[in-house]
TrEMBL record:
Name of the molecule in the record: Probable butyrate kinase
EC number: 2.7.2.7
Superkingdom: Bacteria
Gene3D superfamilies registered for this protein in UniProt: 3.30.420.40
GO terms for biological process, alphabetical: acetate metabolic process
Sorted UniProt keywords: ATP-binding, Cytoplasm, Kinase, Nucleotide-binding, Transferase
Catalytic activity: butanoate + ATP = butanoyl phosphate + ADP
Subcellular location: Cytoplasm
GO cellular component assignments: cytoplasm
PROSITE patterns per the UniProt record, alphabetical: ACETATE_KINASE_1 (PS01075), ACETATE_KINASE_2 (PS01076)
GO molecular function, one term: ATP binding
Family to which the UniProt record says this protein belongs: Belongs to the acetokinase family.
Alphabetized InterPro entries for the sequence: Aliphatic_acid_kin_short-chain (IPR000890), Aliphatic_acid_kinase_CS (IPR023865), ATPase_NBD (IPR043129), Butyrate_kin (IPR011245)
Amino acid sequence: MKKIKILVINPGSTSTKVAVFENRVSLIEKSINHSSQELSKFASLNEQYDFRKMIILQWLNESNIDVNQLDYIISRGGLIQPVTSGIYQINKKMIEDLKSSTLKHASNLGALIAHDIALQIGQKAYIADPVVVDEMEDIARISGHPNYERKSIFHALNHKAIARRHAEMMDTEYNKLRLIVAHLGGGISIGAHKYGRVIDVNQALDGEGPFSPERSGSLPVGDIIRDAFSNKYTQNDMLSNVVGNGGMKAYLGTNDGKEVANRITEGDNHALEIIKAMAYQVSKLIGEMATVLKGKVDAILLTGGMARDEVITNEIIARTNFIAPVHMYPGEDEMLALAENIFLMHNGKLGVKEYI
């Protein structure tokens, strides 16, 4: 079987990650950090396009990677229109939507850069499982007021990759399993996976659900409304309290899990209480997702950076292992997940979808 070379691009808010894979094996990869001073030169996210593209091309040149030898190019997907899970070829419609998106994130630049590089070498470019993957059942969209529909925005790439990896480990197929996947990172998303579809999940972008290292989670809505009209806070203040300066950061002054773990080791009981409360809220939402699946759950999968923290995971396991066996998949290897999508596509196990 011919080995394929895959260029993977993953822009983040303060970094650009790039890698070249041969099948599922990383040949070379780099996380290029961008200082606030570098990024402050740009008035908008879209203005960073040339800067980010130049950095990627420079890295390829310095790494002696011949772009003409690449078989595929794939990028992390941005905030496009809601789509079902899968691999999408980057097309004109997707590019237009990314450029005009009112939701801003550095991942929006990835598909633009991947498409441009692919055009130069006569190849096609792709994205896979962007955060806007939407497979929710209609009943899950109902929030409690018709003005506010629940939306599906979550860590779809890692959810799907880990679910498929678990199925492979169990010598079965993802679309034959009923799973609860909990991604524990800077944001937390917990989804009910029913036979290959995420039929319910919390909206992780705004922090619905459990609080996380920097998101406040589902807060008492009455108190939020009263604060919003108290003249003590601006709109930006309120948004920052919910995303960026909420959660663990608000309680403990940091969003660094390692720092908090060290404080707990040194006997900081307040830090321990907050971490246990976060695990408690995660466990509650896992319990909710078990009801979505009507109690028929094959496994609970814990993934993301915080899945390395034994204080958190032990607490979650103790509260949820009566539902189903709990399996650990720590970390969030998005680069590998993207390469795996291309590998599966190349071998006919995943089809390419059209973005319309």
